[in-house]
Every structure is written in structure tokens, then in C-alpha cells.
Design brief:
- The protein is 81% helix and 0% strand.
- The protein is an all-alpha fold.
- It has one domain.
- The protein is globular.
- About 3% of the residues have low confidence.
- Pfam families: ABC2_membrane_2.
């Protein structure tokens, strides 16, 4: 019950936060712009110019804002003294961070639902119809991406001492996983023997949540051929009957591990003063 109490408290605070509505407006504008300014690039199966553009913008925009929003929200609890008050109720850091994750997850889910729904409605009114299947798919893609990075952001906020540190670390994580990762991976693989490339490429994909979600989503939409023969057996398990189950388990592992790490760090820092 304490977890849900923290979650409800977080929802109330989030609804009063100007960052929440700034995020909503920004995301809605970007999604609407992509749907209205589609370029007509040739498609591969269900993977069209619209889905490709939406995926790229989502990958650049959503993790960054989620990292900043979750990290600052978490570190604020220490800076404003709220955590010291909550400790009087014998609340563990783990239960507190899980409740915070649930509350912020509800807020992000509401923002994403409104943004995609509103943008989809406007594009339909303007005559640029988008299939419900594609819209729902990208809503799910964005939701999963946001939930993973929300767990990472809470972990960042747990060990950050102030808002500035949380901001810098969040931007650093975003830059590394979204911008620097492909360049770094290509540079490293170019120095390795050919037999090592495939296993290291697969392991590295699981280590980067953004890359893992992107590759799985593209394969699920029938565009797995663009990744080359190194990912042939990925296409097999992604399109199998247990593909979604494996994907969901890995996502929950990512979220659980990041929140647990944040709780352990938070507890140690509390003990050390």
C-alpha cells in the first residue's frame, strides 16, 4: 500500500508541474509535424516513411526528456527534504523508488496517449490518414522506451547530489546510448576479428535499451532484412510465438535492475549521511 501511496502522491505532483505540460506540448508538436510532413520514401513491408521518421524522432526526443524529468524529480526529494520526512514512516528506498516510478509512468503514459491520439486525429482531419495499427504500434514503442529510461532516470536521481548533477548525468547517458553508441560500436568492431563481430554485436544490442527496442520493433514490422545476415536468427525468434514474451521479460529485467540499483545506492548514501 505504501508503494501506491507514493505513486498517487507523484501523480498529483506531476499534474501540478509545468515540466509535464511542456513535455506534452513539445511531444505533440513533433509527432504532428512528422505525420503532416511525410516525404513518401519507399517502404519495406509495414515499415514506411512515416514509421521510420516517427521512430527516429522518438528515439532522439523521448529518452532525453524522460531522463531529465525522472532524474530531477527524484533528486528533488533529497534537496527539498521530502525524503527526510518520508523516512519517519519507515519507508524503504526501494518501495519509495518503485512508487515514484509507477507515478511517473502513469503521467508519461497519459502524455503519450494524448499526444499520439491528438496528432492522429488532426492528421486524419487534414486528409493524411494513418492506420490505427501503426499509430497504436508507435504508441506502444514510445511507452516501452519511456518506461525503460524512466527506470534509468530514477537510478540517476538516486545517486545524484543535486539537480545540476542529475541534469549532466542524464544528458550524458542520453548522448552515449543514442548519439555515440553507433559510432563507438562501429569503431570497436572494425578492430576485431570477423568471428567475434556477430556475438559482440548481439551482446551490445542487449546492453543498450534504445537499440534493443528499435531493432525489435523494426523486425516486428517486417524490416529485419535491413540489419543484414548477422541478425537472421533474431528475425526468427522475434516473429515466433514466444518473441513478445521474451521481449517483455527483458524489458522488465531492465526496469527492475535499474530501480534496484537506485534503491541500493540511495540507501547507502542515506546511511553515510
Amino acid at each position: 500500500m505504501r508503494i501506491f501511496t507514493i505513486a498517487f502522491r507523484e501523480i498529483k505532483l506531476g499534474m501540478r508541474n509545468s515540466w509535464t505540460y511542456s513535455f506534452l506540448i513539445l511531444l505533440t508538436i513533433f509527432i504532428l509535424a512528422v505525420l503532416l510532413l511525410q516525404s513518401g520514401v519507399p517502404s519495406t513491408g509495414e515499415y514506411t516513411d512515416i514509421t521510420g521518421a516517427m521512430m527516429n524522432i522518438t528515439l532522439y526526443l523521448l529518452p532525453l526528456i524522460t531522463l531529465l524529468l525522472g532524474g530531477i524529480s527524484t533528486v528533488n526529494e533529497k534537496e527539498d527534504g521530502h525524503w527526510n520526512l518520508l523516512t519517519t514512516y519507515n519507508l524503504s528506498p526501494y518501495h519509495f523508488l518503485v512508487g515514484k516510478w509507477l507515478g511517473l509512468a502513469v503521467i508519461l503514459l497519459a502524455i503519450l496517449s494524448f499526444s499520439f491520439g491528438f496528432a492522429g486525429l488532426l492528421t486524419t482531419l487534414f486528409g493524411n490518414s494513418l492506420s490505427i495499427h501503426t499509430l497504436v504500434f508507435f504508441w506502444g514503442f514510445s511507452t516501452i522506451l519511456a518506461m525503460i529510461y524512466l527506470g534509468i532516470s530514477i537510478s540517476i536521481g538516486a545517486f545524484s547530489k543535486n539537480r545540476w548533477q542529475s541534469l549532466m548525468v542524464g544528458i550524458g547517458v542520453w548522448f552515449f546510448t543514442i548519439i555515440l553508441w553507433p559510432l563507438l560500436l562501429i569503431s570497436i568492431l572494425s578492430f576485431l576479428p570477423y568471428p567475434w563481430i556477430k556475438p559482440i554485436l548481439e551482446i551490445s544490442t542487449f546492453l543498450n535499451p534504445a537499440e534493443f527496442v528499435r531493432i525489435f520493433s523494426m523486425m516486428h514490422m517486417g524490416a529485419g532484412s535491413v540489419f543484414g545476415p548477422e541478425y537472421n536468427h533474431w528475425v526468427t525468434w522475434v516473429e515466433s510465438s514466444f518473441g513478445l514474451s521474451i521481449f517483455a521479460i527483458l524489458i522488465f529485467i531492465w526496469i527492475g535492475v535499474t530501480i534496484t540499483i537506485g534503491a541500493v545506492v540511495w540507501e547507502r548514501m542515506s546511511r553515510n549521511g
